[in-house]
Specification:
By secondary structure, the protein is of the alpha+beta class. Among the domains are: 1-29; 132-253, no CATH class. The protein has helices spanning 2-35, 71-81, 92-95, 101-105, 112-116, 146-158, 202-215, 237-246; strands at residues 119-121, 126-128, 133-137, 164-169, 180-184, 187-191, 220-226, 229-235, 252-253. The chain has a four-stranded antiparallel beta sheet. Strands 4-5-6 form a three-stranded antiparallel beta sheet, covered by helices on one side. A two-stranded antiparallel sheet has the order 1-2. The radius of gyration is 46 Å and the shape is globular. 22% of the residues are buried.
């Protein structure tokens, strides 16, 4: 019997030790979990924004038609549409007196616009190739009367030559001074141009263009570069747009 009691006591002690170990183990695990940081909340994926379709490239306005099969006649027709007409009686053949067919075919307006600004002789008089165009060499003052001719030429291009009631000058490269007098409509001017050899006084030239343009109703003056010379045209807005569409930057408005 004694052995039985001893065995029962040993079992009770072992059970108590087992319970204590379980409790200690449970407490240690709880502390460990408490000290371990929780993983962060998952970051929500950003909401996908709908993407707009890429804008189509802006299409430039279709330029006026240009037919490379017959470039000279095509350019003549286009300049007609722009309001730049050949002087009555002149044809394509007269233009070929200034340049070859190959050169005139360069375009649009590679050379033909410069020819439109020239003058042609009938054997006795000079006539403009196009009444609304003209070429000006800025080294052209050879003697008295040349400034007056500039005034009349600019007025002719602007279509207001009939408004000139006075145009006279006595400016000469050999003189130390001189005066230009003109009247266009109700505008009367008296200038003393700066004399520098044969060069035109650019300020006087611009003033004449402004005076002429002030009398023009449905057009304005436009220029194009030609080295020390320049071309002058009288165009309405549609005509200037047509030329600009086919030859951007070729003509610029008189400011």
């Amino acid at each position: 019997m004694t052995y039985v009691y001893i065995l029962i006591g040993a079992l009770v002690v072992a059970a108590g030790v087992f319970v204590m170990l379980r409790r200690r183990s449970a407490g240690q695990n709880a502390d460990d979990y408490a000290a371990t940081p929780l993983p962060p909340d998952p970051i929500a994926a950003p909401e996908r924004q709908p993407q707009r379709p890429a804008a189509a490239p802006t299409q430039a306005a279709d330029p006026a038609p240009y037919d490379p099969e017959d470039p000279i006649n095509m350019q003549i027709e286009l300049l007609d549409q722009a309001g730049l007409h050949l002087t009555p009686g002149l044809t394509r053949d007269h233009l070929l007196a200034f340049a070859s067919e190959a050169d005139l075919s360069e375009g649009p307006f590679g050379l033909i616009l410069f020819v439109y600004a020239e003058e042609i002789s009938d054997g006795e008089y000079l006539h403009p190739v196009c009444p609304r165009a003209g070429m000006f060499d800025t080294e052209c003052i050879n003697g008295p009367g040349d400034y007056s001719q500039l005034v009349r030429k600019i007025a002719r291009i602007g279509g207001v030559e009939d408004a000139i009631t006075l145009a006279q000058d006595n400016v000469s490269p050999s003189s130390e001074g001189g005066e230009l007098h003109y009247q266009i409509g109700t505008i009367r001017r008296e200038f003393s141009p700066v004399v520098e050899d044969k060069w035109v006084d650019s300020e006087v030239l611009v003033m004449v263009m402004h005076d002429v343009q002030s009398l023009m109703t449905d057009r304005r003056l436009w220029t194009f570069d030609n080295g020390q010379a320049f071309g002058l045209l009288a165009l309405d807005d549609d005509g200037a747009s047509l030329i600009h569409d086919l030859a951007p930057g070729l003509v610029e408005p008189v400011q």
